[in-house]
Amino acid sequence: xxxxxxxxxxxxxxxxxxxxxxxxxxxxxxxxxxxxxxxxxxxxxxxxxxxxxxxxxxxxxxxxxxxxxxxxxxxxxxxxxxxxxxxxxxxxxxxxxxxxxxxxxxxxxxxxxxxxxxxxxxxxxxxxxxxxxxxxxxxxxxxxxxxxxxxxxxxxxxxxxxxxxxxxxxxxxxxxxxxxxxxxxxxxxxxxxxxxxxxxxxxxxxxxxxxxxxxxxxxxxxxxxxxxxxxxxxxxxxxxxxxxxxxxxxxxxxxxxxxxxxxxxxxxxxxxxxxxxxxxxxxxxxxxxxxxxxxxxxxxxxxxxxxxxxxxxxxxxxxxxxxxxxxxxxxxxxxxxxxxxxxxxxxxxxxxxxxxxxxxxxxxxxxxxxxxxxxxxxxxxxxxxxxxxxxxxxxxxxxxxxxxxxxxxxxxxxxxxxxxxxxxxxxxxxxxxxxxxxxxxxxxxxxxxxxxxxxxxxxxxxxxxxxxxxxxxxxxxxxxxxxxxxxxxxxxxxxxxxxxxxxxxxxxxxxxxxxxxxxxxxxxxxxxxxxxxxxxxxxxxxxxxxxxxxxxxxxxxxxxxxxxxxxxxxxxxxxxxxxxxxxxxxxxxxxxxxxxxxxxxxxxxxxxxxxxxxxxxxxxxxxxxxxxxxxxxxxxxxxxxxxxxxxxxxxxxxxxxxxxxxxx
Length: 664
Prior knowledge:
It contains 25 helices and 5 strands. By secondary structure, it is mostly helical. Strand 1 and strand 2 form a beta hairpin. Helix 4 packs antiparallel against helix 8, helix 8 packs antiparallel against helix 11 and helix 20 packs across helix 21 (525-535). 27% of the residues are buried. It is a multi-pass membrane protein. Residues 1-307 form the SPX domain. One of its GO terms (molecular function) is inositol hexakisphosphate binding. It comes from Sesamum radiatum.
C-alpha cells in the first residue's frame, strides 16, 4: 500500500484537516519532476554556480533575519540546500521557516513553493499538537482530582468509623511509603504525575514519602456527587431540585462513581493513544516527503530538515507518553486489582475481526430467501389469492408484511454502513457505540436475511398448510403461525443471553425506551436518529396493532374480524401513526411531514390497479427507501460537523463536583 493511502487509512478522521497534507506536497513534487524532465535539467548545477548562489542567499538571509533563531555562523558548504530556523513568536511558541538557497537556479521556483508549503504544513501540525497536549494535560489534572475524591470515598465507605479529621495517604503515595526495598524506580503519584522531565528514584520516593503530608478525608466535605438522570423520575427530580447532591457514603454510590470514572479514564486513554498516533504519523510523513524530494532533485536536504523536526515540540515532547504510562498504572491498580492483562484489555479493546462464517451464513440465508420468495409467488398464483372475492387472505394475513418493512429498513441501514465506512464516516463514534461492538454491513445484512427467512418460511407454511388436505383440519394451528412468528422475534429481541449481538440489541432497546419516555431523558443523536426511523415504520406499527386486535378480539379460527368496524380501532389507527412523529417532536427539533405521510395518517390509499393492502405496502416501502437515503446524508453532515470542530471524543460525565476549586 502506498504511504498516502496508508496515512489516510490510519488518521483520525475528525482531525484529517490537521494532518500534514501529504498529497498536496506530493503533487508539488510531481510538478517539479515534470519540469526537470521537460527541460532535461542535470541532477545538480556546477560548483561555481552553487557557490555564487549560496553566498548571495546567505548574505540576504543574514540581513533579513539578523541571525534570529540561528546558532553560530552558517556553514559555507557548496552542497548546502536549505537553512532552517525557529523564529520565536509571542510567548514560547516558535515559527519554523526554511530558507531555500537555490531559488536562482532553473526550476528553483518550484522548489521554493514546495518548501513554503512544507513549512506551512509543519507549523500547522506543531500548533495543533501542542494545543491538544495542553488540553489533555488540563484534563489529566481534573481526572487526578476525581481520583483523589474516589480514593477518599472508598476509604470512607470501607471504614465508616473513620472520623472526618483523620487523614490518609492516597493509594499511589501509600504504595511508595510501604513498598520498602521493592519500590519501583518510577512511582505513580497521580494521573497528572510529576513535572515534565522529572525522574524519581526509589530511594528518593522513600525519603519523600516520610515527609509527605497525607491527604485528608476532609476533601469529601467539599465534594458533591453529580446525579445523572437514569430514569424519568430522576430527570424530574433534577429539574425540580439540583443535579448535584451530598455524598451518602453508600456502596451503591461508590459503585456508580467507580463506573463513571472508569469510563472517563478509558475514554481519556483512547484520546492519548490517538494523539500519540497523530504525532508518529506526521513525523513519518515529513520523513517520507523529504526523502522523496531528495530522490527527485538529487540533493541532500532531508537531513537538515528532519533534524529540525526532531528538535521541535513535535519531536521532543514526551508528555503524552508519560501520561499513558501513568494512566495505565493507575487504572490497573484501582480498576483491575493489579491484574495488568485485565486492565490493558479494558483500556485497549481488541479490534473487531471479520469472521468467514458471517459471510457464509449471509449467503446461505440470502439464497434461502430467494427460494422462499419464488415458492410463495407460485403458491399465491396457484390459489389466485390476489383476486379472491372475499379478500380474507389479503385483509387478515397480508399484514404479516410488517416484517418485510423491517427487513427492507435493515437492508437500507446495512447499505448505509457500507457507504459510511467506504467514505470514512466515523459512524460508531457518532452513534456512541461501544468500541468493537458496532455492527458492520455484513452483520446487518446477516440479521436482515435471517429475519427474512423466518418471515417467508412462516408465510409459506401458512399457505402450504391450507393447500395440503392432510392439514386443512388444523385451522387453529394454521392461523397461529403469524402470531408464533411475532412471538419468536420478540423473544430474540429481549433475550438476556449473550447471543445474536446482545450489546447491539440492548443498545437498540435503550434508545427505543428513551424515545418512548421523551423528553424525560437527555436526547442524544442515537435517540433522535432512531425516532426518525420509527416515523418511517408507521405501517409496521399499524400491522402490529391489527394483529393485537385480530388475535385478541377477532375469530382467528374462521379468519374473520371486525376490527375495522370498531370506532376505537379507527381512532387508534390514526394515533399509532402519530406516535412516532410526536416522540420525535418532543426531542430540542421542527418536523416537516412529507406529503406521503399525509396519505398514511389520513388513510388515502385507493388505486384502481392495486389491491388496497398492496398499495399501502408500496407507499410504506417508498418511505423506507427515502429514509435510508436521508440517513446517509444526515450522518455525513454530522461527521462534517465533527471534522470542522476537531471533535473526535465524547465528553464523559465525571462523578464528582468540587464546590471550591482552590482546595486542590
